[in-house]
Amino acid sequence: MPEPRGLVAAAIQYGHLKIQMTLGYAGTYASGFPDDLAFEEWLTRLDTLADAHEHLQSGEHVSGPAADRYRQHIESAPRFAGHVLRTTRDARTLLANPALQIFPGQGMTCVLDPRRAVCRLASDDTTTRVTPDLSDCRPNCVNVARTDRDIDAVRADAARLRVLVADPLAPPVRAARERAELNRLLRIIADHDNRQPDRRV
Question: Could you name the domain of life of the organism this protein comes from (predicted)?
Answer without folding.
Answer: Bacteria
